Amino acid sequence: MSIDISPHRAVFGITGWKNSGKTTLVSELVTWFTEQGLKVSTIKHAHCNFDIDKPGTDSYKHREAGAQQVLLASSSRWALMNELRQDREPELQDLLPQLAPTDLVLVEGFKMGDQPKIQVVRPANNTERLSQEAQPIVAVASDETIDPADYGCDGPLLPLNDIAAIGRFIADYCGLTLPNS
Question: In order of start, what are the domains of the chain with their CATH numbers?
Protein backbone atom coordinates (compact mmCIF):
# COMPACT_ATOMS: atom_id res chain seq x y z
CA MET A 1 0.00 0.00 0.00
CA SER A 2 1.44 3.41 -0.89
CA ILE A 3 0.79 6.58 1.02
CA ASP A 4 -0.99 9.47 -0.68
CA ILE A 5 1.22 12.41 0.28
CA SER A 6 -0.71 15.17 -1.47
CA PRO A 7 -0.87 18.07 -0.64
CA HIS A 8 2.65 17.54 0.72
CA ARG A 9 5.64 17.37 -1.56
CA ALA A 10 7.37 14.69 0.52
CA VAL A 11 6.83 12.43 3.53
CA PHE A 12 9.87 10.90 5.22
CA GLY A 13 10.17 8.89 8.42
CA ILE A 14 12.59 8.69 11.31
CA THR A 15 12.28 5.41 13.17
CA GLY A 16 14.12 3.29 15.69
CA TRP A 17 13.82 1.78 19.12
CA LYS A 18 13.08 3.70 22.31
CA ASN A 19 15.90 6.05 23.46
CA SER A 20 17.66 5.90 20.11
CA GLY A 21 17.46 9.67 19.57
CA LYS A 22 14.50 9.92 17.17
CA THR A 23 12.90 12.98 18.78
CA THR A 24 16.20 14.85 19.00
CA LEU A 25 16.95 14.09 15.36
CA VAL A 26 13.47 15.13 14.17
CA SER A 27 13.69 18.40 16.14
CA GLU A 28 17.12 19.20 14.72
CA LEU A 29 15.97 18.32 11.20
CA VAL A 30 12.94 20.60 11.50
CA THR A 31 15.25 23.47 12.47
CA TRP A 32 17.69 22.66 9.64
CA PHE A 33 15.02 22.31 6.92
CA THR A 34 13.31 25.50 8.10
CA GLU A 35 16.62 27.36 7.90
CA GLN A 36 16.96 26.00 4.34
CA GLY A 37 13.66 27.68 3.45
CA LEU A 38 11.27 24.70 3.49
CA LYS A 39 7.88 24.44 5.18
CA VAL A 40 7.95 21.40 7.46
CA SER A 41 5.32 19.62 9.53
CA THR A 42 5.69 16.61 11.79
CA ILE A 43 3.58 13.65 12.82
CA LYS A 44 4.58 11.80 15.99
CA HIS A 45 3.19 8.39 16.85
CA ALA A 46 2.72 7.81 20.58
CA HIS A 47 2.47 4.26 21.92
CA CYS A 48 0.78 5.29 25.12
CA ASN A 49 -2.40 7.11 26.01
CA PHE A 50 -1.70 10.84 26.03
CA ASP A 51 -3.65 14.00 26.59
CA ILE A 52 -2.68 17.51 25.56
CA ASP A 53 -5.63 18.93 27.47
CA LYS A 54 -5.91 19.51 31.22
CA PRO A 55 -8.76 18.53 33.52
CA GLY A 56 -10.88 21.53 34.43
CA THR A 57 -10.31 23.51 31.23
CA ASP A 58 -13.30 24.38 29.06
CA SER A 59 -12.04 22.26 26.15
CA TYR A 60 -11.51 19.29 28.47
CA LYS A 61 -15.09 19.66 29.71
CA HIS A 62 -16.32 19.67 26.09
CA ARG A 63 -14.52 16.39 25.37
CA GLU A 64 -15.69 14.81 28.60
CA ALA A 65 -19.24 15.79 27.71
CA GLY A 66 -18.93 13.68 24.55
CA ALA A 67 -17.74 15.99 21.76
CA GLN A 68 -16.10 14.03 18.91
CA GLN A 69 -13.88 17.01 18.04
CA VAL A 70 -12.84 20.08 19.97
CA LEU A 71 -11.00 22.90 18.22
CA LEU A 72 -9.18 25.21 20.61
CA ALA A 73 -7.97 28.52 19.13
CA SER A 74 -6.09 31.57 20.35
CA SER A 75 -4.06 34.38 18.81
CA SER A 76 -0.93 32.19 19.10
CA ARG A 77 -2.04 28.73 17.90
CA TRP A 78 -4.91 26.35 17.40
CA ALA A 79 -5.31 22.66 18.09
CA LEU A 80 -7.90 20.19 16.91
CA MET A 81 -8.49 17.27 19.26
CA ASN A 82 -10.30 14.18 18.05
CA GLU A 83 -11.72 11.63 20.45
CA LEU A 84 -11.54 8.14 18.99
CA ARG A 85 -13.91 6.68 21.56
CA GLN A 86 -14.33 3.17 20.14
CA ASP A 87 -12.94 3.92 16.65
CA ARG A 88 -9.69 2.34 15.45
CA GLU A 89 -6.36 4.12 15.79
CA PRO A 90 -5.71 6.11 12.59
CA GLU A 91 -2.97 5.06 10.19
CA LEU A 92 -0.45 7.54 8.79
CA GLN A 93 -2.40 7.88 5.53
CA ASP A 94 -5.46 8.89 7.59
CA LEU A 95 -3.52 11.64 9.37
CA LEU A 96 -1.62 13.26 6.49
CA PRO A 97 -4.72 14.98 5.03
CA GLN A 98 -5.25 16.69 8.39
CA LEU A 99 -2.07 18.75 7.90
CA ALA A 100 -1.83 21.98 5.92
CA PRO A 101 0.23 21.73 2.69
CA THR A 102 3.98 21.64 3.27
CA ASP A 103 7.21 20.85 1.49
CA LEU A 104 8.05 18.02 3.87
CA VAL A 105 6.33 16.00 6.59
CA LEU A 106 8.75 14.31 8.97
CA VAL A 107 7.20 11.28 10.63
CA GLU A 108 8.50 10.02 13.97
CA GLY A 109 7.49 6.47 14.67
CA PHE A 110 4.94 4.67 12.49
CA LYS A 111 7.59 1.96 12.03
CA MET A 112 5.34 -0.19 9.88
CA GLY A 113 4.28 2.59 7.49
CA ASP A 114 5.17 2.65 3.80
CA GLN A 115 7.05 5.95 4.03
CA PRO A 116 10.82 5.84 3.39
CA LYS A 117 12.68 5.92 6.71
CA ILE A 118 16.00 6.44 8.36
CA GLN A 119 16.54 4.09 11.28
CA VAL A 120 18.34 5.71 14.21
CA VAL A 121 20.66 3.21 15.88
CA ARG A 122 22.68 3.77 19.03
CA PRO A 123 24.42 0.45 19.67
CA ALA A 124 24.82 1.38 23.34
CA ASN A 125 21.00 1.52 23.67
CA ASN A 126 19.63 -0.79 20.97
CA THR A 127 21.04 -3.48 18.76
CA GLU A 128 17.88 -5.20 17.52
CA ARG A 129 16.95 -5.14 13.89
CA LEU A 130 13.45 -3.83 13.09
CA SER A 131 11.04 -6.34 11.60
CA GLN A 132 10.75 -6.74 7.83
CA GLU A 133 7.39 -4.90 7.99
CA ALA A 134 9.32 -1.71 8.87
CA GLN A 135 10.70 -1.46 5.32
CA PRO A 136 11.52 0.69 3.44
CA ILE A 137 14.49 1.70 5.57
CA VAL A 138 16.65 3.66 3.13
CA ALA A 139 19.49 4.72 5.46
CA VAL A 140 20.79 4.21 8.98
CA ALA A 141 21.96 7.07 11.20
CA SER A 142 24.24 6.20 14.10
CA ASP A 143 26.76 7.66 16.50
CA GLU A 144 29.04 4.66 15.84
CA THR A 145 30.47 2.94 12.78
CA ILE A 146 28.09 0.09 12.02
CA ASP A 147 27.02 -1.82 8.93
CA PRO A 148 23.55 -0.71 7.73
CA ALA A 149 23.05 -4.21 6.25
CA ASP A 150 22.96 -5.55 9.81
CA TYR A 151 19.75 -3.52 10.17
CA GLY A 152 18.17 -4.63 6.88
CA CYS A 153 19.25 -1.54 4.98
CA ASP A 154 21.00 -1.38 1.59
CA GLY A 155 21.43 2.39 1.95
CA PRO A 156 24.18 4.46 3.51
CA LEU A 157 25.32 4.93 7.10
CA LEU A 158 24.83 8.59 8.06
CA PRO A 159 26.62 10.24 11.02
CA LEU A 160 23.95 10.94 13.63
CA ASN A 161 25.69 14.15 14.74
CA ASP A 162 25.81 15.62 11.20
CA ILE A 163 22.33 17.09 10.77
CA ALA A 164 23.24 18.77 7.48
CA ALA A 165 24.37 15.45 5.96
CA ILE A 166 21.15 13.75 7.08
CA GLY A 167 19.07 16.69 5.85
CA ARG A 168 20.78 16.70 2.45
CA PHE A 169 20.24 12.93 2.17
CA ILE A 170 16.51 13.34 2.86
CA ALA A 171 16.22 16.28 0.45
CA ASP A 172 18.03 14.36 -2.30
CA TYR A 173 16.00 11.20 -1.67
CA CYS A 174 12.73 13.16 -1.83
CA GLY A 175 13.76 15.37 -4.76
CA LEU A 176 13.45 18.55 -2.70
CA THR A 177 15.20 21.76 -3.68
CA LEU A 178 16.65 23.67 -0.74
CA PRO A 179 15.98 27.36 -1.52
CA ASN A 180 18.57 28.76 0.92
CA SER A 181 21.44 26.42 -0.01
Answer: 10-50+90-174 (3.40.50.300)
